[in-house]
Every structure is written in C-alpha cells, then in structure tokens.
Design a protein that fits this description.
CATH class of one domain: Mainly Alpha
CATH architecture of one domain: Alpha Horseshoe
Shape: elongated
Radius of gyration: 34 Å
C-alpha cells in the first residue's frame, strides 16, 4: 500500500473495533454478540490483508442484523462494509453503503456511528481529487467538521483525532494544485494535524499516533520542508517501542525518499537497510501470530475431537445394547417422513381442486353442473333418453378439455406476469430457489461458481426488488408468487 490509502486499514480497524462495543439490548442480545464477533473477525482479516474474507464476514453480519430487525447492528455492519470497500478501491460501492448507513443513523439518532460514517464519506471525497476538476474537498470538509462536532459531543477521542487528521488532509488537498501554495491553507492543515496528534498522545492511542505521523509526511512534503521532516521522523523513530516494526518501516521508507531529495545518498542507503530490517521483523511478527493462531485452533479442535470420540464411544455402547430399538426407530422415522410427503402431495392436490372449484371462470364447472342436472332428472327419463344425454355430454368433453387447457394457461400466464413485473434475473431466481433450500451464501457461491460477495450482492438486490428484509420473507413471498412450489 502507498499514498493516502496506506493508512486506511487503520481506520477500517477502528471502525470494526467500535462496532464491537455493546449498546444493543432486548431481543437482539444474541444477534449483537454474533454480529460483533463477525465484525471483529473482519477487522482481523483486514489487518492481515484478507479483504475477501473480511467482506464475507461483514455481509454475514449484515444479514443477521437485518434478520434481527436491528437498525443499530445494521448501521455498524454497513460501516464495516464501507471501510472494506474503500480499502479495495471500490469507492462507488463504498459511497452507496455509506449513504444507506448515514440515513439509518440519522433517523435513529446513532451519533457515534454517524460520526464514523461521515469520516468515511470525507475520506472518499479526499480520494476523488485526481485533478483540479474532480476535487470534492469542500464537501469532504463539511462531513469531517460535522463528524468532529459529534465526536466532541459524545466524548469520543479516537473519532475526534481521526476527524482532525482527515480535515488536515483535505486542506493539504486544497493546496495540491497551487503554485506557490497558499500559506493560510497550509497553516490550517498543520493546526488540525497538531490537534489530532495531541489527542493521540494525550489518550495514549498508538494507532492514532501512527496515523498522525503518516499524515504529517504529506504536509512536510507539500511545504518543501525536507530537513525538518528528517529531524521529526528521526526523533519519532527514537521514541518507538522496539516491537513497533510496522511504524518504523513506514518512517524508514519516508526517510529514504527525504534523504534522496536532499542528496544524502549514504543516509538514504542506511535508512533503506533499516526499512528492510523492520519490514522483515514485521512479517515475522505476523507469521508468529498466525502460527500461534493455528496452534490455538489445533488445540481447540483436538479437544473437540476427544469429546466427539467419547460421545461416539458412549453412543456405540448404547447402540450395542439397544440395536433393535434403534432400527425400529429409524424405520418409524422413514414411515413418518413418507406419510408427511404423501400428505403434502394430497394437500397440494386438494388446494388445486378447491381453487378450480371456486373459480367461476373454470370451464369444468359447466361439465360438473350438467352431470348434477342429469343425475337429478334421471328418475324421470327413459333409458334411451339417459343414454342420449350422456352421449351429448361425452361429445362436449373435447371442447371442455380445450377450454380447460386455455384456462390453466391463463392462470400460468398471469402468474408469470406478476413474477416478470419484479424484474428478477435468471441468476436471481436461481439464488432464490437455492436459498429456499436452506443453502448458505458460501454454499450457493460454490454451487454457482461465484464469490460469496457476489451472492450477497444478488441477495441485497433481490430484497429490494421483492420489498423484503431477509431470506424468510423472500421465501414466503416467492412461494405466494409461484416462484417456489407450495
């Protein structure tokens, strides 16, 4: 990672961590714990640059939030998705998710969550400036200033520092195309960076201190203050903990470029050696952490295996002592399942018969009425009259069959018209049917050779077209429309 986005994953981690905090009560307690766990795991995946895994967990959290009908959990999940989309340079997707989250947060008065979303929107405005014509710095400043005010009201120092950093970055952007730069804009940018750094130092937040150092690098560069930047970065290097190899490698990388601009090539070479060393140490740290995580998972799975083995042994003893009962129970389950299937089939047929019987347009009603009339008159008719009347009814059967086929065709056409009106694609219909079978997003993705992210995006579009909120409502409505069998 490089440039302004090189610090973004720190912001995404902050969003994931803040989304894990408590704040939901009532019937959503269980969902809150699960959603918070998924968002926390997504943050871990982001830290390890596993963005696809992180997005899968974030979308799973969103699905649970929707099922729990919890606006707060939904906002937190959307905020996490927004941050991951920004990291993956999917700015348009991130913007749409941020707008959705902002609308819910404003409606329900979720001030801390709203501040985080506004910071994300301000960053997206900052990234839009690739030419003087595309700049959205003033728009971004409005979002960042509102976020700063909200963070001050709620006493959230992390969001205050982040908002200050983003405001400083936007002022740096406003000077980007000025030659020479405007002193007032440059000074204002420095003041906000100082304010953010002071908050990070005062409240001892290492992540925010690292952010401030990286933001200040752009500020020094814009002011052509290379010597001052070298002194500042060298001083910060001397105060870092020995284990903070990530920050050290970032500072060494900047020192290499600064020394090159000043023509101090020996110093640049030494800084490059330090950069390589700290990068290797950081990678080793991550490898050790991964190994530790694998060892922990192995220990847990080994314990689970031992428990399963004991349960198996107990089950085997029970089975040996009562094999006849077990076999009988299995047979009874099969019989019961078959009876249920037959009953469902009979119910379906009965529903169809009742439907046709109630519908006045059904051409079979005329045939049925004629038979009833003939049956009532039979005692008063001769044998020849009865046979002649039956022959007349038989002659009309072909016509009735044709009318019946047309009628059923009209029913099917009307059902298809209602389905077509929703605008569902063939792929979306596939996903509806597989979801109704109980398949998870991951199982559907494997079956259709898609990514989990794509399946989740399809589901969101299906929810919008069908005006439903979750899989259960989607399945119920699809059944009513005839997309799924009863």
């Amino acid at each position: 990672m490089s440039g302004k986005r090189s610090i973004l994953f720190l912001f995404v981690l902050a969003a994931c961590l803040s989304a894990c905090r408590p704040g939901v009560s009532g019937r959503t307690d269980g969902a809150e714990a699960t959603v918070a766990g998924l968002i926390g795991q997504a943050g871990s995946d982001v830290e390890n640059q596993r963005l696809d895994d992180a997005m899968q967990k974030a979308f799973s959290a969103l699905d649970l939030a929707i099922q729990a009908d919890s606006p707060l959990l939904r906002v937190r999940s959307l905020a996490c998705i927004t941050g991951i989309d920004i990291m993956a340079s999917r700015d348009e997707d991130a913007w749409q998710k941020a707008l959705e989250a902002e609308s819910i947060a404003r409606q329900h008065g979720f001030r801390p969550e709203l501040a985080g979303i506004l910071i994300s929107k301000a960053k997206l405005c900052s990234y839009a400036e690739i030419s003087p014509e595309t700049g959205r710095n003033d728009e971004g400043l409005e979002y960042a200033r509102e976020a700063l005010a909200l963070a001050e009201e709620t006493g959230n120092y992390e969001q205050q520092a982040e908002a200050c950093y983003v405001i400083g970055s936007l002022y740096i952007n406003k000077n980007r195309w000025n030659d020479p730069i405007e002193p007032d804009l440059y000074r204002t940018a420095g003041e906000y960076l100082d304010r953010g750094q002071a908050l990070a130092d005062q409240h001892d937040i290492p992540r925010l201190r690292r952010n401030g150092i990286l933001f200040r690098s752009r500020w020094f560069q814009q002011g052509d203050r290379n010597e001052e930047a070298i002194r500042y970065f060298s001083q910060v290097l001397g105060t870092l903990p020995e284990t903070d190899h990530l920050t050290a490698s970032s500072l060494d990388d900047r020192l290499v470029r600064l020394y090159m601009r000043e023509g101090e090539y020996d110093q640049a070479l030494a800084a490059h050696d330090d950069y390589v060393y700290h990068s290797q140490q950081y990678l080793r740290q991550k490898a050790d952490e991964t190994l530790q995580e694998m060892e922990t998972r192995f220990d847990v799975r080994e314990k689970e295996r031992q428990i399963e083995l004991r349960n198996y042994q107990i089950s085997l003893l029970v089975l040996l002592g009562g094999v006849g009962i077990v076999l009988l129970a299995g047979h009874l389950r099969k019989v019961r399942r078959r009876n249920e299937e037959l009953q469902h089939s009979n119910d379906t047929k009965e529903q169809l018969i009742n439907f046709l019987a109630r519908d006045l347009r059904n051409p079979a009603r005329a045939f049925s009425s004629a038979l009833e009339e003939l049956s009532a008159e039979a005692p008063e008719l001769s044998v020849d009259q009865i046979r002649r009347r039956c022959g007349e009814l038989a002659a009309g059967v072909q016509s009735i069959n044709e009318d019946m086929a047309g009628y059923v065709g009209d029913v099917l056409v009307e059902r298809n018209r209602r389905i077509s009106g929703l605008g569902l694609t063939h792929r979306e219909l596939e996903i509806i049917r597989l979801s109704a079978q109980g398949l998870t997003a991951a199982e559907i993705a494997e079956k259709l050779y898609l990514s989990v992210h794509t399946v989740n995006n399809h589901r969101q579009r299906i929810y919008a077209k069908m005006d439903v909120r979750n899989v259960s409502e989607m399945t119920r409505k699809a059944t009513d429309l005839g997309i799924l069998p009863d």
